[in-house]
Amino acid sequence: MKVKEKAMQQTYAIIGLGRFGSSLLEALINANQEVLAIDKDPERVEDYMEVATHAVIADAQEEEALVELDLTSFDHVVVCIGHNQQASILTTILLKDLGVHNVIAKAENKLHARVLDKVGADQVVRPETEMAQRLAEQLISPNVLSFVDLGDATAFAEIKVANLKFSNQTIAELDIQGKYGLTVVSIKSQGDITISPEVDTTVQIGDIITVIGKHSDVQRLDEALDKTK
């Protein structure tokens, strides 16, 4: 089955239009998602009035304001409040108390992240730390474009085919499952994504293979790609 690289549309509310919040807003809008932008600073809201699907001035520390915005109807609510950790924590508590399904909160440091997790955030992100980690991984393993730790030493990784010895071969010929213990989830080729590719699917130079398996097995495949350059 082939699908175009287009995400299913969902609804997002972004609270806080600082550097992270505004960048996330623009990325989601560019991906054709529906986004409500929220900030208590009128000037920031004005800046993104024409960018977001909707933009409103509201103080997320006020429960009545959150109720009026009907945030429980959104698929995801992202708390991007910057250095005011108290406001970030209080907003997260209020959102969960109101019954918001998926609250993603930005943390400034480890302690802030621990508190956000304790008060019920469904996901806590530390953008600077995570970006640095991804950059380090890319520098060390340039073939691995993304690496998501799923826990229990299992990972979900995107690996680029960047050498001739791994190209122009079928999934069966590469035998990634047998040689490396990895399951091929998809192959991205020239903008198309093939989900659960058949064993006779041919891999070409520049294709991106998405695999799932043990950390050590992903590393072994990456090392094999380097050796065959």
UniProtKB/TrEMBL annotation:
Residues 142-227 form the RCK C-terminal domain. GO terms for molecular function: monoatomic cation transmembrane transporter activity. It holds the Pfam family TrkA_C. Gene3D superfamilies: NAD(P)-binding Rossmann-like Domain, Regulator of K+ conductance, C-terminal domain. One of its GO terms (biological process) is potassium ion transport. InterPro entries: NAD(P)-bd_dom_sf, RCK_C, RCK_C_sf, RCK_N, Trk_Ktr_HKT_K-transport. Residues 9-125 form the RCK N-terminal domain. It comes from the Bacteria. This is Trk family potassium (K+) transporter, NAD+ binding protein.
